[in-house]
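Entry:
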Amino acid sequence: MSGADFSHRNDVGGLFRAHYAWLCARLRRYLGASPSVEDIAAETFVQLLESPGLTPIREPRALLTTIAQRLIYQLWRRRDLERLHLDQLLPMDPLDGPSPEDLAQYSQALTRLDQTLDRLPGKVRATFLLSRVDGLTYPQIAAKLGISQRSVSVYMTRSQALCAQHSANEPLNRPPLTQRSA
């Protein structure tokens, strides 16, 4: 470990001690008494620790807030996606619908897909989610992220290739659910 890495770890450790409680309190304003508060606060510091620490942080609370808000938005998008999939399953008659085991498998598959998408760099993942979850067009995505439409196209190709790889490895690629007998 280089001296710069050690210094960065010490700086982040100091920020953690000084601002963790404050960040948790701030996150509670957005999330209430959710158990996600402490997870998001901890992940905020993990991301800060993993980022290159070459420049001093002049406004640590602003930076921590920005990182935490990004994580909250990811959490909300994930919940919206889960809710969308569950809403598509709920109108079914309980006897004709998926079993609790099938629902658990779908939830696990969504979690694995989310973990797969987390391997993508930030703008690539954001491009994919804006397209697939929010339904934005390539020009809208380019304007929102401040990138070219060509970059949007490249990012979508990259994310779709990763999703195709995920699908090839996913054990839930099987025919639709069969009806349970009454």
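Confidence is low (pLDDT under 50) at residues 172-182.
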